[in-house]
Amino acid sequence: MNQTKLEIAEIALKEEDRDEDNIWWWLVHRGIVSSFICISVFALLVRAAVSLHPYSGAGKPPKYGDFEAQRHWMEITLNLPASDWYRNSTSNNLSYWGLDYPPLTAYQSYVHGLFLRTFHPDSVSLYDSRGHESYFGKLLMRWTVLSSDALMFFPAVLYFVVVYYSGSRSGRKSDVAWHIAMILLNPCLILIDHGHFQVYNCISLGLAVGAAAAILSNKDLLGSVLFCLALNHKQMSAYFAPAFFSHLLGKCLRHQNPLLDVTKLGLVVIGTFALVWWPYLQSVDAFLQVLSRLAPFERGIYEDYVANFWCTSSVLIKWKRLLTVPSLKLLSFGATISACLPSMIQQIRAPSNQGFLYGLLNSSLSFYLFSYQVHEKSILLPLIPVSLLAGDEPFLFKWMMHYALLSMFPLLCRDELILPYISLYVLFILLYHAPAGRQHTRDAQSLANLKSFVMAFLVICSLVLHIVYLALCPPEKYPFLFEALIMLLCFSQFVFLAGYANLKQWTLLKDSTSENKEKKYL
Amino acid sequence: MTDPKTPKNQITNPSNPIADLAWFFLIATSIKLLLIPTYRSTDFEVHRHWLALTHSLPLSLWYSDETSPWTLDYPPFFAYFERFLSLFPPLFDPTIVHLHNGLNYSSNSLIVFHRLTVIVFDTVLIYGVYRLTRKLGLRERVLIWVLVVWSPGLLIVDHMHFQYNGFLLGLLLLSLSWLEDGKDLMGGFVFAVLLCFKHLFAVAAPVYFVYLLRHYCRGGLVKGFGRLVMMGTVVVAVFVAAYGPFVYYGQIQQVFHRMFPFGRGLCHAYWAPNFWVFYILLDKGLAFMLAKLGFSIQAPTASFTGGLVGDSSPFAVLPRVTPLITFVLVMLALFPCLIKAWKNPQPKMITRWVAYAYTCGFLFGWHVHEKASLHFVIPLAIVAIQSMEDARHYFLLSIVSCYSLFPLLFQAQEYPIKVLLLLLHAILMWFGFSSQFSSISAVKARVPRQKKGDKSGWKGSSNIVTQNGGFIIGWIEKSYLLGLLVVEIWGQFLHPIVLGNRLPFVPLMMISIYCALGMMYSWIWQLRQIIRKR
């Protein structure tokens, strides 16, 4: 035992030395927090630069796009009482971008609306501001996203990194810096939030990351409060719910008094929900009204060309014609649950920090692949746990990012965001392969021949698809041929990755149990 | 997938400087690509017009055309350069190079093409940096790259405001790199080429002349004279290549007339932060005082804030400044440096001397633009890591220089970008310098007093290094930098609230004056440094 300890110390010393000769020494020599500050200023700069580019639906009346939706919500929340936010009325036409996110989004819109009203009242005045597109109004909207990113997502990531790399986990400091850069400069998140301009994903994802970090540091109550807030900002955060649920349940079961712990967690969850939903708890009607806005089942099982199971298989099986909406709902619900069941069982049986992160990935991926009404942008949710895992699974991360970007390419093309798409893609690849960066990133070369051949082939496929999509007109008979091809390629990769991640989570269990046995044996 | 159990302590490949530098450049490039849709100044249209001008007119008419107010006023090599660039637009959008239809044209194709030319020609800067840093250690090298390749000033001026400074400064750095290597002929040649690209760089010509005369043309009368002839031939050949065609067409007078428009006045609409700011202030103050005392002071007819100043004197009390006076002042300021270069021409000092020359030109020159501060900030980055004092001075200077560029981007859209650029630069410098000097002190602690006295340049600073064990700036510098923050907050936020629309020129004036203080400090510091060093 002593000998191994000495060896570990020696390795640590060597790693320190290597840090000193590292090209990144100047960045990391003051510790995690300073390198985080440096990288986050750079990440903010990139975000600010992306926000110069067009947003979705710019100059496209009558409905414009997601940008107008956000602005409209600010207008509604600012000018109407809370009870009218979700109700169709003369001053709130729900068919024109009615509010369809939970109350926390509405509160956030209200706060941002206050900010806009202070500096540019025209952009949020009731009725008159529909389709408002002024230079200053647009800037202020962009700045609200920038500030929420800096105030929610960045601190959450810092919390996560500090928790994740404290204690037993040793490694080169530059690897930590690399990991921070990977999480903060996630091209998909930047493009959607600061380019396309969708519902402040940075807030809900930041809350989710914060919740994950809290749970990793054993602050389960704080974690569940944060996660409830994330759920109340975007119902899409439910993609993570099975992982949180199973991990917390698994942990509680191992405590001395499981029932007490579960009750505590349950009370905290109910309390948080009650606080957020307070204005709508006065009457059953109001509550149901909000609830019905949050679940827009009438929009169909899928939209556009999203790389999930329903959309891809609809090439062969016309789900929408074969089955009614209620049965489709049931079917998709069943499929989703059965897809995330293995990872839930693993976490209930043997909750572990690493397993929890894999669980987040698996449950969000299975939601993306099988749940009802999935949008292309929902790939952001599985991307977050993958980026949290990037330290251990750099290749998985890169692969997933590659196809997540590809799957959003048609959407971003429509928004005229090709230029930021290319530059963020390049930036991501560069940062991933930073000089003297992780050793892991160089291991790709040591892969077996066949494997590397297949991968090179897939990468070339995706690059060709990019170019084809931009350069060629699809045949008249199949106007969405290229979208379908992109979808097929991405779907195949996501399924493969989901399988791999599930497998990995279960082998973790085996590793840990065998380690435990060894310890006992010793 | 990767195997998590790969041994973590495998030996890292020795890093390849070219690949690493390319990485730094590409990171900057991806940011530059993102900045393509930012605000463009009139310089964008100026350069587009030059593309059209050189494309559609014969060479003999380049310097006499008046289709647009933006006449060609750069030396011939730059015109040839524009002629070369103008070969490409006809392939995708011929309107760009159409003399009349192209006026004030701003299609996406033009914007992307024009910005891409700047990005591509930044490779010259990268090559210059590579040549200058290729013999340094890993850490010094990386620090210089961070300072130059990621320079916020260049990003603001070249990739937002629009100009080709990266390319031109790249030529300057190349020339310096050859001088540092002792290859004077090559250095002189590149500098001559640079002068034929942009004549503003001529401020350093006296330094080059003295240095080359004393360093290159030495070794006896005959050999020295031979070398003088050699250098002369090279330089003359360059100038003939540039100006020859215009002499042939009898246009040379017109060329010089365009290149030196002295009618433009002492200061720009936004005062560059230099010596003349204080002169103007003194004049205003004196006029005010004398008026209080009962003297009748005639208000000047020309105003400084109104842009181009005509022939009438803008001063109420103090004597009028003519281009000749500014020239004499610049030469006077340069004098100590020229003496040093004459007495002891050393390759390792040339970068400092050239940077000092540009500082003098910036402080005392005629119609100086704030962008010209890049001409000395970029070369000084090369020597900034040599000692703690250098680093401290550079930290201050580069922040002031970058901040003085803020008024170039006056629109709200770019506000977060310029602030974040400056902030990032300051943080990078802080971390970079502190890692550099904390490690030096660590090394010194390990090997106590071994090197004492063998490098006179280190002597002054080594005390500080071992005492503090890190990068520390004094309280004067700190409070000065905090003052920048105050100036910015006042100008951006408090001024509109407190004074409304009254005195709209005050925020800009405050930036000028405050930055001029920093620039004067930098000039004095550099002068002292040059005089002290042997």
TrEMBL record, chain A:
**Swiss-Prot/TrEMBL keywords:** Endoplasmic reticulum, Glycosyltransferase, Membrane, Transferase, Transmembrane, Transmembrane helix
What Pfam families does the database record attribute to this sequence? Answer: Alg6_Alg8
EC class, as a word, reads transferase
Indicate where this protein is primarily found.
Answer: endoplasmic reticulum
Query: Which is one GO molecular function term here?
Result: dolichyl pyrophosphate Man9GlcNAc2 alpha-1,3-glucosyltransferase activity
Q: Which InterPro entries match?
A: Glyco_trans_ALG6/ALG8 (IPR004856)
Question: Topology versus the membrane, per the UniProt entry?
Answer: Multi-pass membrane protein
Example GO CC term: the record gives: endoplasmic reticulum membrane
Enumerate the subcellular locations listed in this protein's record, separating them with semicolons: Endoplasmic reticulum membrane
Pathway(s) the chain acts in = Protein modification; protein glycosylation
Does the keyword section mention Nucleus? no
Q: What is its EC number?
A: 2.4.1.-
Q: List the transmembrane segments.
A: 23-46, 139-164, 176-192, 199-216, 265-281, 331-349, 355-372, 379-397, 417-434, 454-472, 478-500
Q: Which family would the database say this protein is a member of?
A: Belongs to the ALG6/ALG8 glucosyltransferase family.
Q: What is this protein called?
A: Alpha-1,3-glucosyltransferase
Query: What species is given as this protein's source?
Result: Camellia sinensis (Tea plant)
UniProtKB/TrEMBL annotation, chain B:
Transmembrane feature ranges: 21-39, 111-130, 142-162, 185-213, 225-250, 321-342, 395-413, 419-443, 480-499, 505-524
Q: Which InterPro entries match?
A: Glyco_trans_ALG6/ALG8 (IPR004856)
A single Gene Ontology CC term: endoplasmic reticulum membrane
Q: Which GO terms describe its biological process?
A: protein N-linked glycosylation
Alphabetically ordered keywords of this record: Endoplasmic reticulum, Glycosyltransferase, Membrane, Transferase, Transmembrane, Transmembrane helix
Catalytic activity, EC: 2.4.1.-
Q: What Pfam families has UniProt attached to this entry?
A: Alg6_Alg8
Which pathway does the record list? Protein modification; protein glycosylation
Predominant cellular place of this UniProt entry's protein: endoplasmic reticulum
Q: What class of enzyme is it?
A: transferase
Recorded topology in the membrane: Multi-pass membrane protein
Where in the cell?
A: Endoplasmic reticulum membrane
Q: Give an example GO molecular function.
A: dolichyl pyrophosphate Glc1Man9GlcNAc2 alpha-1,3-glucosyltransferase activity
- What protein family is recorded? Belongs to the ALG6/ALG8 glucosyltransferase family.
What is this protein's record name? Alpha-1,3-glucosyltransferase
Q: What is the scientific name of the source organism?
A: Camellia sinensis
